[in-house]
Design goal:
The chain is an alpha/beta fold. The protein is 42% helix and 21% strand.
Length: 111
């Protein structure tokens, strides 16, 4: 699902995340559109892509699919907001996506 729904997004995966996201991020990394690494590696990757966008003279929308724990979202949001505020850019958007496996969703009939 991630590959089809987010084909235009950067893909990231933490070293400790097995499965589809790891494989997809590894493939994306080979073409410069993703990274597999530590929390710090992922944050640096996002910051580098945002720096590239800030240096361009036009607006942009960056999308990142994170194959990592949601606890990382606070550090990402803080860093992205600080970078955008410092650059004074309101024409750049950053979307952070945490894919959820359908196996992790319980319906009322399953309870």
């Amino acid at each position: 699902m991630v590959k089809e729904a987010y084909s235009d997004a950067y893909l990231t995966a933490h070293f400790e995340v097995p499965g589809e996201m790891f494989k997809l991020a590894l493939e994306a990394g080979a073409r410069g559109a993703g990274v597999v690494g530590s929390t710090s590696n992922i944050l640096d990757f996002i910051a580098a892509r945002l720096t590239e966008a800030v240096e361009r003279p036009f607006g942009d929308r960056l999308r990142f699919v994170l194959g990592t724990e949601t606890g990382m979202s606070t550090s990402i949001v803080r860093r992205v907001q600080a970078m955008l505020n410092e650059a004074g850019r309101e024409d750049i958007e950053v979307e952070v996506i945490f894919p959820v496996s359908s196996d992790a969703i319980a319906t009322s009939s399953q309870q």
